[in-house]
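SEQUENCE-TO-STRUCTURE ENTRY
===========================
What this section holds: a protein sequence and its matching fold, both as plain text.
Tokens: labelled as protein backbone structure tokens, with as many entries as the chain has residues.
Question of interest: how does this chain fold, as expressed in backbone structure tokens?
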Amino acid sequence: MPVSSSVTGDKVSIKLTQSFTFEDHAQFRRASLSHPPGTKFEIDFGDIESIDSASIGMLLLLRTSAGEEKSDISLINCRPNILKLFRMCQFGDLFRLS
């Protein structure tokens, strides 16, 4: 399973493995969009080597459902190429990147 999640208090941790593409959208939606606004999210990209445009859209949908400007979403363990893409998309203004 490419997407797994766990809940600790008010934080949802989502671990992505193998890929993060359009094919993963149903699993990602189940893991992320069922939580109320104000939920903190930590999304682990440690095993992801590449992403597609659909994954960018999924992250933006998550931000919307998490409360837009009030959202608290961290994208962690990003490989250099993923981090570079996120910075080019100015995701540093929308998410915490590491």
